[in-house]
Amino acid sequence: MLQTKERATIGEKTCNVKGPNKQMSVSPLSCTSRCALCRERRVLCDSHIIPEFLYEPLYDSKHRVFRLSTAGKPKRSFEQKGVREYLLCRDCECQLSRYEGYARDVLYEASDVVSGTPQGFEFLVDYRQFKLFELSILWRVGVSRLPEFKDVNLGSHERRLRNMLRQESPGATEEYGCIKIWPLSYRNIMDQLIMSMGMGKIERVQCCRLVIGGMCWFFFLSRNAIDARQEGLFLQDTGALRIMLGDFGIPGYMQKLAKDLYVNNPHVFPLKH
Hints:
- The protein is α+β, with helices and mostly antiparallel strands.
- The chain has one domain.
- 26% of the residues lie in helices and 25% in strands.
- The strands form 5 sheets. Strands 9-10-15-11-14-13-12 form a 7-stranded mixed β-sheet, with helices on one face. Strands 1-6 form a two-stranded parallel sheet. The chain has a two-stranded antiparallel ribbon with strand order 2-3.
- Helix 1 packs across helix 2 (127-143) and helix 2 (127-143) crosses helix 3.
- It is globular, with a radius of gyration of 19 Å.
- Mean pLDDT is 79; it is low at 2-24 and 269-273.
């Protein structure tokens, strides 16, 4: 798990929640906070920002993930069950969990692969469920207070995304589409990473870039695709889920990342003199 510089905590709380209780899924203190999704004041769950099933390949024998930072040693070197924060009420947590359960079956079982070429492969999925899964990840990393996602900025799109999730409306194919890439290089590293690559522009459109599930996910913050080719790479309303194969500049990014991690984590990689 990769961490970047810490950000200030924001939000509207009625009492102080000091940290997660490993035995509880809701706040251990008798207090209420505003749920980030429904906006009601309720007891909040200790919510995953990235679904827990995507951490499974990263766990050690003690069910922990190791945290590294490009900005110095993180407060905790290990994290149980992935990084979490008090974000959602129980009802909203259960809603997003439904999408996660469906996506886990799609990504881990891969039973509905309908075609494959050297350029990529295609699954047949339930458009509504998988698109809402995609939107839930994009929205969560955008509203998260965790330092791992401090560089994600949804701007005015946050409200639109929140309303789509509240109404369980996946929108059209081109609305907040996501291109997924399976890099061919650095597989031993890609499979062990969950991280934000920050924001960037692709074909003049602002994108949120994540590494999860061994893939690069590029979420386009737009309600319209640039052209038919780009739209064709998004999840289709027919249920066609396409994953591209290729590096697309990933090796250069990974080399820079490795250098930054080496310099900023001397507790893990002692500098040689």
